[in-house]
Every structure is written in structure tokens, then in C-alpha cells.
Amino acid sequence: MSAILTVENLRKHFTLHDQRKTIPSCANVSFAVEPGSLSALIGPTGAGKSSVLKCLYRTYLPSAGRLLFRTAIGETVDLAQASEHDVLALRKHEIGFVTQFLHCLPRKAAVDVVAEPLLVRGATRAEARDSARGLLEALNVPERLWELPPATFSGGEKQRVNLARGLVARPRLLLLDEPTASLDPRTTDKVVEILQRIKTEGVAMLAIFHHSDLVTRLADQVIELAQPVVRQSLSEATTQ
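Above: the chain's sequence. Below: its structure in C-alpha cell form.
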């Protein structure tokens, strides 16, 4: 089975122009992700795990490397070089991202927040809301909250809504940045069940987990990132 994603020598750094410094975030990252599998990113704080996900989703523009994504029609797109238009199209139809934080319109009901990815893909409002309700129920979001805006929810409740929205459309590649960090053990077990199920449906996942036991329970592949080397500032280099 050919990989849906191949990452070759990805690097990301940030330049502090006023301090004449380059701050590395991730370096020399290479791996492949297969359909129907979950690959876990591990490594020390500062190794750039979240930066890898953000480069793949193009929240960050990679500094170097190739991010080769195989689309549903068999084309290969380098996400590092793709146009903004192409990236938005892939986000709409093929690549999903569950972050640690929920961002949505302040007055939008939770069920509509979750249903939105399906509406974008052409589902009817009734179909999308039915699917959204099913996931909200599966993730232990109380029914009394479904028609209320998530802005008023607790951190754990917001994270469940965020997860439901990311999972509802079954993207071909799903990026997960500590999706269970704010969840209780019972809901975490539900999330594990759902992720195991969507693996069998062929979804490829790349995930960062807060707890190592989730890596053991879910990961088909573990990718360990090393701490990148901090580069000297230009002024430091010239005085030594």
C-alpha cells in the first residue's frame, strides 16, 4: 500500500530579525504515513512536534523539505509548495486538523459547529446535524448543550466539540494535536474507540498525545523527533 503522506527532510525555523537570531523548531524530519494507520509523533518539549503538524496543514510555511501528499485522485501535491488555493481545497475535502483549542463563531450552536465540515462537502443540513448529534453523544457531550454555543462550555466540553468537528467528515489525513489533553478517562476511552474505528475505514492519522499510554494503545508507528540545535546569532558568530 502506498503512503498517503511522505515527509522528506522537513525543517522549520523562525527568524527574529530584531535580534538577528534564527530559532529552530524542527529539523531533518522524514517519515511516511499509510492509510488506515496512526503514526504518533513523540519527542521532548521544543522538538517541534506541533510545528510538524502546522507545516502539514500549512498554518506554518516550511523552511525546507518536501511534504508529498497523495490526493484522492492519485495526484501528488507538495504541501510545502502548494498554492493557498490548493491548500484550502485540500483542507475542505481531504485534510483535517484537531487542535487543542476550539475556534468558532461565538453564537453558533455546538451541533452546527460539528456539522459544518459536512455541509462544506455538500451534505444536507439534516444529514450533517444527524451525524453531528451522533458524535456529540458518542463523546459524552450532554444533549442539553447541543443547541448552545460552545463559548459557554467548560474546557473539556469545548475539546469534545472540537474533536467531534474534526472527526465527523472522515478526512483522508487527520492531524491530531493532543486531542485528549482536557478529557476525563471515560471520554478518552471513547476517543480511543472512535480512532480505532476510523482507522479501519482507511483514515490516515498523525497524532501528538499528552499521555504515553495512548501512544501504546493507538500507534501503528512511532516517529521520534530530536531537539534541534540552536543556531548562533550573527553577532555572536562574528565575535568568536
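Helices lie at 49-57, 84-93, 110-120, 125-138, 155-168, 185-200, 212-218, 234-238.
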